[in-house]
Design the sequence.
């Protein structure tokens, strides 16, 4: 598709933070390319924001290749958002398949997408590309039962910082947004569809909503080109640490 609008790519745009980020970037005038595995959901959102829905599984190198092939040669913004947590078991009870799948999406998936989009970010029509990784407070803290997920998000932080060193001197900004509790499908996925267990995560407290994170992303990308917002940690007022929440 040829367009004079700046181009943004959002992974994991079928739900939660990614969907709201795609929506808000479209409101800012971006042509948004939405990637995720659930294509019908992407298509509904793409119709709403005149975006482009493309199937994407970030854990599959061939899927990433096919996705990227359909993007314009110049990409202004890449939001590496696809990912999430699986399970809450202690390391002594580690479910290896959870760890493998989390690593493949949150870490390798993010690195695959960054590698694949690098040449396109270098050609950003605005003159400055922008890579935004969605980390978590789990990139800064650990908590019992969160070993697999916190290891992944600590790795995301390491990748963000490595890219900032490796791409120094190139016209690409690199930012990381690290949310605390945001009410999305995150906990439903983590607890394999157990809606009651997922709802308990947010019981009696006021979590963030996806729009709170999307607004921060819009602010980060709309700074002047010479300004790089390295990292933002955003938590609900009711959360002091990953495992310390005030409930009424
Ligand atoms: P969500 O509602 O479950 O959304 C996750 C998104 O990731 C979905 O669109 C899902 O789409 C996509 N995804 C998962 N695996 C994928 C894969 N292999 N390939 C492509 N897309 C994939 O959860 P969310 O809260 O918005 O999470 C978004 C990001 O924020 C994640 O990286 C998460 O770790 C991070 N985060 C969330 C919170 C929170 O409290 N919610 C806090 C800190 C950080 P499909 O299933 O359709 O592929």
Sequence:
């Amino acid at each position: 598709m040829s367009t004079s609008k700046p181009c943004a790519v959002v992974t994991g745009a079928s739900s939660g933070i990614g969907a709201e980020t795609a929506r808000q970037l479209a409101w800012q005038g971006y042509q948004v390319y939405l990637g995720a595995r659930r294509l019908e959901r992407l298509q509904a959102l793409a119709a709403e924001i005149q975006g482009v829905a493309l199937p994407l599984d970030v854990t599959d190198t061939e899927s990433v290749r096919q996705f990227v092939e359909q993007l314009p040669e110049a990409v202004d913004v890449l939001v590496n958002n696809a990912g999430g947590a699986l399970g809450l078991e202690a390391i002594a009870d580690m479910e290896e398949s959870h760890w493998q799948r989390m690593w493949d999406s949150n870490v390798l998936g993010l690195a695959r997408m960054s590698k694949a989009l690098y040449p396109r970010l270098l050609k950003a029509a605005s003159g400055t590309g922008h890579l935004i990784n969605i980390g978590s407070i789990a990139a800064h803290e650990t908590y019992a039962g969160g070993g697999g997920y916190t290891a992944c998000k600590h790795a995301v932080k390491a990748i963000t910082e490595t890219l900032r060193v490796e791409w120094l001197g190139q016209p690409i900004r690199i930012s990381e947004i690290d949310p605390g509790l945001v009410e999305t499908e995150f906990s439903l996925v983590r607890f394999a569809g157990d809606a009651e267990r997922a709802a308990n995560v947010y019981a009696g407290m006021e979590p963030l909503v996806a729009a709170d994170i999307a607004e921060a992303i819009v602010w980060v990308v709309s700074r002047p080109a010479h300004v790089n917002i390295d990292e933002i940690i955003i938590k609900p007022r009711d959360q002091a640490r990953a495992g310390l929440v005030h409930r009424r």
